[in-house]
Amino acid sequence: MEAAEEAQMRARQVLRARLPLRVALILAAAFRAVRGVEGKQLTDGQCLARVAEHFLEIWKKPRNTRAHRVLERDRCFCQVPGCSRAATHVHHVRFRFQGGGDEGDNMISLCSAHHLFGIHGGYLRMWGRAPDELVWERVERRVLN
User: What is the pTM (predicted TM-score) of this model?
Assistant: First the structure.
């Protein structure tokens, strides 16, 4: 039955999809926005195509954020000595609440394990200036019995 319904939709060039209510409401709002910008009545298919084009236009642009520049500088690899994992996080060497800023020499690329478990878990410390003047220290943690 679904195959026959799909064949009919293709023949009529109609797309029908079941969506959660919140997604349908977001899509309806996007269609209203497209029609408002275009200043004319468009079909749902034309609106969907404009939304998709806009999405691709925005997300294809290279990012020029501080974090993106730090990741590029570090070639998207974790900077913990001996680690070869992809960097997925950018970390402040000196925390902002301690007076550290968003300058490139205060930010370093880390994999999620070293960032979350090593640094924030208290097993790894670093200080200095990124990327080449950092001092790394492994912290031994005692297990209480």
Answer: 0.57
